[in-house]
Amino acid sequence: MSGFSTGFRLYVSAAGLAAALSLVAASAGIDPTHWPHLLFFCLMLVIAEVVPLGDNTRGSVNFGPSVDIAGIMLFGPGAAGWVCLVGRAAAAFVLKESTANPYPKEVSFYKISHVILAIRASGAAYIACQGGFVLEGGTISILAVAAMTLAYFATLGFLSAVAYSIRYRSGLALFREKARLIQVAVSVPGALIFGLTYHHMQVGLSGVLLFLLFLLLVSYSSRLFVDMKAIYWGTVRALMTSVEGKAPHSVGHGDSVALYAVATARKMNMPENEVAKLHWAGFLHDIGLVGIHELILQKEGPLSVEEFEAVMEHPEKAYDMLREVPFLGGMAESIRYHHERYDGRGYPHGIAGSQIPISARILAVADVYDALVSPRSYRWAFPPEDARREVERLSGSAFDPKVIRSFLRVLDDEARWGRLVFHRHYSLDSDSSSRGRATVIPRKPAPTAD
Predict the structure, then answer these.
(1) Under a CB-based contact definition with an 8 Å cutoff, are residues 122 and 149 in contact?
(2) Please, how many CA atoms are within 13 Å of residue 7, restricted to the half-sphere of its CB?
(3) Which of 7, 62, 403, 437 could tie 52 with a disulfide, CB 3.0–4.6 Å?
């Protein structure tokens, strides 16, 4: 496990040992007649892990927990633990050459260990609440299922947060991600439907093959959508690259603004669909500059009145470009108003306060801060501390005080965790998420004097 700290290596070893002892202790209670069923569940788990429904971002849903929970209800936690080990190990092998699984084998190992321990804890909760194992003639208790699900996600979230804290110094956001409500909401009915249908239908080989075909068709349709979306956003990125080519100092600016905007929106507890729109609005906020001459964008001295008026047109130009595009129309208003000021002295319309969409108020702060800490053709970059003081000073005049309070908490996170961990916590970038790892935008240093 080269590249990992001693503390993290010890944690991985301890988690693996605990999971192994759990499996060994439970092996004696496994009914040998259940092995054909367990192999089928292993196959289902491989499919669930290899092709989650969604685009591998935070909005995707993995049906692996449904298989785990169904396995506990049908066979008990011991057998479900072995299904987890065999199925997820096979899935890791299938994905080892794929960009969908970029993690080293040590990371896959401790993740599997976490799930085995979560299965053990949830099985204990299920038994404690008088839940019965279906293939052994028991009955399902709704209370037991609820307790089992809570124990599963709480244990998985806690262990993952501990590992993340040891490796990256903070794990709170990862705990929230592992225990997110959408995954819980999908896993419970998925487990009930899958487990009970499997038990009561008594399907033969033809039924199994039809079920597999259905899953493969659903997965294939999901993958086609993901590929189409990747092509679409790749085209958008290419367009933004043309903007950055006209103003080299702005390379990476859209990514950074998107990152700060997402982090701030999360601090303000905005709905996740609005956060996703804000991400792309941050990335595309300067797309209206595509119509501005590069001599203006690269000018080292002050802009003339005519030049500044030309630059001031870029929010409206961006709005006109994006509002009729289905994928982008929802973010057009945010981009249109991101240069408005809270006191009404901004542009292009001079609106103030709550008249400015909250997403545009967030973009305004993220845009100015990243511009301050980045070098420009006409000035050095501000040190982060000075840039922080500047945006704080403008609270109530240029910026919404409520947004500033949340944004300062975001800067505290960045200072405490470092850029890498900060990016991994908050990035929604579809390209980097599809690779499983974020492409970290390095902080742009001020140029050195000759």
Answers:
(1) yes
(2) 8
(3) 62
Burial 196-211 (b: 16+ CB within 10 A, else e): eebeeeeeeeeeeeeb
Nearest to 408 by CA among 423, 387, 426: 387
DSSP 383: P
Q: What is the pLDDT along the chain (450 residues), one digit of tens a residue?
A: 545 667 878 888 899 999 999 998 888 778 778 788 888 889 888 887 776 555 444 445 567 888 888 888 888 888 999 999 999 888 888 766 444 444 445 557 778 999 999 999 998 888 888 766 655 555 666 778 788 888 888 888 888 878 777 765 544 444 454 444 444 544 555 555 555 555 544 444 455 455 556 555 655 665 666 667 677 777 777 777 777 777 666 778 889 999 999 999 999 989 878 888 899 899 989 888 887 877 787 787 788 888 888 889 999 999 988 887 776 767 899 999 999 999 999 999 999 999 999 999 999 999 999 999 988 777 788 999 999 999 999 999 999 999 999 999 999 989 988 888 788 778 776 444 333 333 444 444 444 443
Nearest to 11 by CA among 87, 82, 114, 81: 114
Give the integer Cα–Cα distance in Å for 27 and 356.
Answer: 62
b vs e for 157-174, b when ≥16 Cβ sit within 10 Å of the residue's Cβ? bbbbbbbbbbbbebbebb
Contacts 24+ apart (CB under 8 A), 23-26: 23/78, 23/81, 23/82, 23/85, 23/116, 25/78, 26/76, 26/77, 26/78, 26/79, 26/81, 26/120
